Amino acid sequence: MTTNTLVPVLAALGDETRWSILVALGESDASASALAGMLPITRQAIAKHLAVLQAVGLVASARRGRELRYRVLGSQLSETARKLEQIGADWDRRLVAIKRIAEEL
Amino acid sequence: MTTNTLVPVLAALGDETRWSILVALGESDASASALAGMLPITRQAIAKHLAVLQAVGLVASARRGRELRYRVLGSQLSETARKLEQIGADWDRRLVAIKRIAEEL
DNA sequence: GATTACTGCAACTCTAGGGTTGCAGTAATC
DNA sequence: GATTACTGCAACCCTAGAGTTGCAGTAATC
Fold this sequence. Notes:
- The structure is a homodimer.
- By secondary structure, chain A is of the alpha+beta class.
- Chain A has 5 helices and 3 strands, in the order ααβααββα.
- In chain A, strands 1-3-2 form a 3-stranded antiparallel β-sheet.
- The structure holds a DNA duplex.
């Protein structure tokens, strides 16, 4: 559903450890325990990060037997990118307008 | 120069107060003191946020008489957006490939 | 049914950083 | 030259959250 509040998504993305998790999931779906075997932190810490990522729609989970497998959602990243692109373009547009006015003086 | 380490930029963008500042600067350049008149926090707090934003290339400053005027840099936002777009696309590509394999079974 | 992986919850530590106050420095204005 | 805005620095408070340990719950496997 990509529920977007923008800033929370960016806050979630502003953490190196969470990127380690996202990169790992980007290569292959995995459970919290499996991720704990790859990263230098505990499973519980990873579980918390996964909860954050899931809350902002960057990750989704599904039961697979007795384990909870997580997968990464590229759509949320794309949507966030589009919004940033939009805002940046707006700013540049204003600056260009100012420049034009300055040159006419 | 848009020096990009990506995660620090996203961390800088993951704060509501800093967005208030960016939005204000998006409408018009301003000094820290001027911003303090618009937002419900002190000038010093704003100065810290501006330092963070400047460190990651989202904002630039220039002396204008006795005040330091800040302006927003859309280019950094656009560049960040492009990187996110790229990564999201990569993830989706892998997921599409997996789906294809699954359907062939 | 006992054992073996998983997940889930709770309490706790510790640091980063968002915010504050207070004061010193410096450039315009009168 | 005195006053009046600005910026800059330092010390401090306080909370959010990243990480930990420990244990209970639950679903496979033997």
